[in-house]
Amino acid sequence: MLWELLWEHKGKLMGVLAGLFFGIIYLLVGFWDTLVFVVFVGTGYYIGRKLDHKEDLREILDRILPGKFR
Known about the structure:
Shape: flat
Number of domains: 1
Mean pLDDT: 83
Pfam family, one: DUF2273
Largest sheet: none
Radius of gyration: 18 Å
Number of strands: 0
Low-confidence stretches: none
Number of helices: 4
Order of helices and strands: HHHH
Organism: Brevibacillus reuszeri
Protein name: Small integral membrane protein
Transmembrane segments: 20-48
Keywords: Membrane, Transmembrane, Transmembrane helix
Distance between the termini: 56 Å
Helix content: over 70%
């Protein structure tokens, strides 16, 4: 019964857990360190998603930093 309820609201549960996680990081290390952490996680997710879709890493880096990886 509890698992069914949690499964129906898994998006809300994940959102609350993510908010709790980032809230604890903010309280422990501060705003700017947390912001840098979020940027790193977001960048890692973005690159990982592109690699999952079989895109070339050099092509991704060339879009981010044009002319540096030819």
